[in-house]
Design brief:
This protein has one domain: Alkaline Phosphatase, subunit A (3-Layer(aba) Sandwich), CATH 3.40.720. It is built from 14 helices and 15 strands. By secondary structure, it is α/β, with parallel strands linked by helices. The chain has a seven-stranded mixed beta sheet, with helices on both faces. The protein has a two-stranded antiparallel ribbon with strand order 2-3. Strands 8-9 form a two-stranded antiparallel ribbon. The protein starts with 24 loop residues before the first helix and ends in a 13-residue tail after the last strand. Helix content is 29%, strand content 13%. Helix 1 crosses helix 9, helix 10 runs antiparallel to helix 12 and helix 12 runs parallel beside helix 13. It comes from Telmatocola sphagniphila. This is DUF1501 domain-containing protein.
């Protein structure tokens, strides 16, 4: 399809907000059709903890280390013998048999950049022209949609004012494989003329609103572009299934209360993501509706200490942890509990991580700084052998002491859980050269499969 036939961002189906870089929605559908439709219902929810969470205060406590390393938190036992986590996570502790902790993720970047979290590639490694695509875009390319009215890849990530915190995009796969983005300001663009998303099911209003556009398109010859993919585009916007998934007000109020809610307009520390536990509930609803990959960013975890925005010296890492940890415990445990109660735990993989760990020693500002030597990952579901800890760190949580896990292994596991063999599958870059999905011939984490 010639791009000149695509109408402007604020016209036709108002799909600029879908993160397609100016491409028309029918092109997305056409690209997915060419990629081949797969009937698998396997899925992944990827939760990015913006800024890098403190592994030694969450899931790798060192109570016997000196106080300037251990900090004030105490470990508590979980329902899996021998596994202890922070006392601020009692709900997760009671269902540890449904989680896996990776304490020895190595090869992390040193600076803030979401790219490695979303595609498993180190920011400083060579990349092909156009850049590496993020995980969800690769899955959309290889597997297409489960359902023509539900996009294969949905991003619930809020756009952070600090650019490196944002998703890297579809890379060399091109804008047609960017995620569908219904969150935040994008909701305002999900309109057709004056008709908002709640009224799109009224086909008569759609046709009436399209009259002028249709005449203009006829004059320019663009009506030829209204083929079957356009019909699918209409179906996507008018899908009660998708609209219902995005409307958590339809959820049982007791379930919403279990997850908790936050204000999506308050970006933590101004440049992080909002702290909105309801995003995890929406992710579960989208997976149930048929999405293959849902990504979201959650709060801000870059706690260097020092004074807060009002100039008070109460912005220590431990003050912030007391605010964030209980809410995190509540929404993550609710998500995993829901997946099990709804029979989704074997099919949906949950992976939670930030871009690096934090320094073992607490700074003079009562914070922890960037620490790429080791990182921690929390996983659940996916039909994996959960209820275990993989890897360990030294006495100060500074280095991997056993079973270092690479990003390649982590992502090979995610692909494997979706039914994609990283040893066989490849995607072609802009030169037509096939590229493997993970680095260094990595294989899925053997302890999980």
């Amino acid at each position: 399809m010639n791009l000149t036939h695509c109408l402007s961002r604020r016209s036709f189906l108002q799909i600029g907000s879908f993160g397609l870089g100016g491409f028309c929605l029918p092109q997305l559908l056409q690209a997915e059709a060419k990629a081949g439709i797969n009937s698998s219902q396997k899925s992944v929810i990827l939760i990015y903890l913006v800024g890098g969470p403190p592994h030694q205060d969450m899931f790798d406590l060192k109570p016997n280390a000196p106080s300037e390393i251990a900090g004030p938190w105490k470990p508590i036992a979980t329902n899996v013998t021998g596994i202890q986590i922070c006392e601020a996570f009692p709900k997760i502790a009671k269902m540890m048999d449904k989680f896996t902790i990776i304490r020895s993720l190595v090869g992390n970047q040193a600076e803030h950049d979401a790219i490695q979290v979303f595609n498993g590639r180190h920011v400083k490694t060579p990349k092909p022209s156009g850049g590496w695509p993020q995980f969800g875009s690769v899955v959309a390319k290889l597997q297409g949609s489960n359902d023509s009215v539900v996009p294969p890849y949905v991003s619930l990530c809020y756009t952070c004012s600090h650019g490196p915190y944002n998703e890297p995009g579809p890379g060399f796969l091109g804008p047609s494989l960017a995620p569908f983005r219904p969150t935040g300001p994008a909701r305002e663009d999900m309109t057709l003329k004056s008709i908002d998303i709640s009224r799109l099911a009224d086909r008569k209003e759609i046709l009436k609103s399209l009259d002028t556009t249709r005449r203009d398109a006829d004059a320019s010859g663009s009506m030829a572009a209204l083929d079957s993919f356009n019909q699918q585009a209409f179906g996507l916007l008018t899908s009660s299934r998708l609209a219902t998934a995005l409307d958590i007000s339809k959820e049982d109020p007791k379930t919403i209360a279990r997850y908790g809610t936050g204000n999506p307009k308050i970006f933590m520390d101004s440049n992080g993501a909002p702290r909105v536990p309801q995003s995890l509930l929406m992710a579960r609803r989208l997976i149930e509706a048929g999405a293959r990959v849902v990504t979201l960013n959650y709060s801000k975890w870059d706690w260097h200490g020092g004074k807060n925005a009002e100039g008070r010296a109460d912005n220590s890492i431990f003050t912030r942890e007391k605010e964030d940890f209980p809410i995190f415990d509540q929404c993550v445990s609710a998500l995993v509990e829901d997946l099990h109660q709804r029979g989704l735990s074997d099919d949906c993989t949950v992976v939670i991580m930030g871009e690096f760990g934090r320094t073992p020693k607490i700074s003079a500002q009562v914070g922890r700084d960037h620490w790429p030597q080791v990182n921690c990952v929390l996983m659940a579901g996916g039909g994996m052998k959960n209820g275990q800890v993989i890897g360990s760190t030294d006495r100060i949580a500074g280095e991997a002491a056993s079973r270092p896990v690479t990003f390649g292994e982590l992502y090979a596991t995610l692909y494997r859980n979706l039914g994609i063999d990283v040893g066989e599958a490849s995607i072609r870059d802009l030169t037509g050269r096939p590229q493997y999905l993970v680095d260094d011939n990595a294989q899925p984490i053997r302890e999980l499969v």
